[in-house]
Structures are given as C-alpha cells and as structure tokens.
Amino acid sequence: MVLFASDLDNTILFSHRYRQETDQCVEHLEGREQGFCTQRSLRLLETIGERGLLFVPVTTRSIQQYRRIRWPQPPRYAVTTNGGTLLVDGIPDPVWQAETAALTAPWQPALLELERRLPEVPVPKRGRIVDGTYLFAACDTPEDAAAVGAFFVGSTGLETAVSGRKVYFFPPGIHKGAALERLRARFAPTRTICAGDSVIDIPMLLAADVAILPGEELLGTGPGRRTCPAGRRFPDFVLETVLEEAGNS
Ligand SMILES: [Mg+2]
After folding, report:
1. How far apart are CA 245 and CA 21, in angstroms?
2. How far is the CA of 197 from the centre of ligand 1 (A)?
C-alpha cells in the first residue's frame, strides 16, 4: 500500500488570497469563505482514494482548525497539531494520544514558561499553546516572526520554527518527520509519498521515499524530489504526481 502523507495549507488547500474563479470553498471561518481547493484537486483526491492509496493529511493545524475543513469525501485518518494527534473518523486515537502525552509531558513547564515570556519581545503577536502540544505566535510580519524566534534562541530546549508570519515552539519529537514514522509503524506502507511547502514540512519530506515541493528553494533537487514547474498550480501538481508515482511503484 502507498501512503500519501501531505501538508494541507498551501499544499492541498489555500486561502482566498490565491483563489481563482472556479475554485471550490472547503472551509468557512466566522461566516466567511476561507479555504479553497481547485476542482481538479478534488477530482484527483477522489481518484487517489479509488486507486487504494492511503491519503493522510499531516497538518500543524489544531484539531478544531482541522475540523473546519469540509471535505467532499473526508479522509478516514488525519494527523493534526504537527503530529500530536491522529484523528480516526474525526475522533482522536487514544493510543496515539497517549504516545504524544508521554512525549510532551516533560516539556509542559517549558511551554508555559515560554508562553509567559512571549511579551518580552517588543513586537505585536498573539500566542497560545495549541492542544497542549506546542506554542504558537502569530505576528503581523515575517520580520516580527523572525525576531520572536531569534529572541528565544538558546534560552529554550523547544525547537523553534519560523514560517512566514508565524513562529512555533515544538517539543523535540513533535514534528512531521516523527509523525510520518508513527504512520509507517501503524500502516506498514510499501512506499511513502509526501508533499509540503514550508520549513515545518522538511522533516517529513526528508523521511519520504518521494517528496513533492513547490520549488527548489526548500530542499534543492535530488533523487526522489519532485518540484512544481513554474506556472502550474501546486495542489494539482502534487496530486497528479502522487498518481504518477503510485502507478510506477
Ligand atoms: Mg503548508
């Protein structure tokens, strides 16, 4: 069985800023249309299911944020909270939860301490601990996010990741590469294909047999790397490449 583990935001779905006319809304936020998929992507996801590939979203979204997505055909499994939670038919899997609780328990004081110290950085930000698993701060600009990340370097054992206007502090072991290993242990796939667009996806992309990326900036080129040609829409490229790769295996 081929496992297709994929980031969601800016990989499979995207916000209204990138919306084109024929795209389909799959997420509402406070009554407004928020998240979109291309119609082609929705058809390709259907084909991926019909071909017997196991599609598992692997997202940094909280459980609640993930649940906002209205899939035409919901995937049976989804990993949220950057690997912290496995949803099975929308319900957190207790075995996975217990593993995560054991991983994150030693880091709870560090998370609380860093949350308390966030105001020390003099830039506007909104921070919170997500599902008891990691600390997140949303800033107004990428520069502010970089400043928040840099401020705490060396003063926390948590792993810092800056992606656009967001900065994350993850306990070691809470990353998408570890999530992929946990999925491998559970499903024993013969092959894993992964897609992602940001630094947070790198551990998963590096652990995949095939990694699908929007360009060469993130990881360069190399065996097993597939990068989206200029002018193509990345979500469609991702899903077409998955079907191609699965056909070759
Ligand atoms: Mg993304």
Report:
1. 30
2. 5
**Cα 95-79-194 angle, rounded to 5 deg:** 125
pLDDT, one tens digit for every residue, the chain (249 residues) = 999 999 999 999 999 999 999 999 999 999 999 999 999 999 999 999 999 999 999 999 999 999 999 999 999 999 999 999 999 999 999 999 999 999 999 999 999 999 999 999 989 899 999 999 999 999 999 999 999 999 998 888 999 999 999 999 999 999 999 999 999 999 999 999 999 999 999 999 999 999 999 999 999 888 899 999 999 999 999 999 999 999 865
Q: How far is the CA of 108 from the centre of ligand 1 (A)?
A: 26
CA of 94 to the centre of ligand 1 (A): 26
Same domain assignment for residues 125 and 242? no
User: What is the C-alpha to C-alpha distance for residues 125 and 46, in angstroms, rounded to an integer?
Assistant: 39
pTM above 0.85, yes or no: yes
- Give distance in angstroms: CA of 101 to centre of ligand 1: 25
Dihedrals phi, psi of 9, to nearest 5 degrees: -70, 125
Check whether residue 194 and residue 129 sit in a common domain. no
Q: Which of 170, 193, 218 is the last residue of a domain?
A: 170
Q: What distance in angstroms lies between residue 199's CA and the mean position of ligand 1's atoms?
A: 9
